[in-house]
Amino acid sequence: MHKAFRSAAAVATGFVLIAGAVPAALAAHQATPKLVGKAAAGKSVFVSTCAACHTLKAAGATGPIGPNLDKTPLAESVIIAAITNGGATVMSKAAVAKYAVPMSAYKGSFSTAVIQNVAAYVYTSTHK
Asked: 115 or 15: whose pLDDT is higher?
């Protein structure tokens, strides 16, 4: 008989894991998160606004000022927070100290939808 146990992921998604097996539905849910923004709509904004500072291969961007996003795959929610409130709000003090220029907050410049679209574009570009 298999022992059932609950993990944080199982409780959050309503699945109970049996003997350590991950049900296919749970694995699919974890592998393909539902994005808040629309990635295709975020590319042009990324290229015109973010590429000067950030490297992102998918956008052909080689910005030397901020973190290389190809080497820093983040959750969409973290990317949204960084764009909205500024990069330093999602980084450790040590990481912030590596960069001479802090990332600005864009909550006053971009609508929520535009921020979400850029975040979805960065997320899908770095999680392939």
From this structure: 115
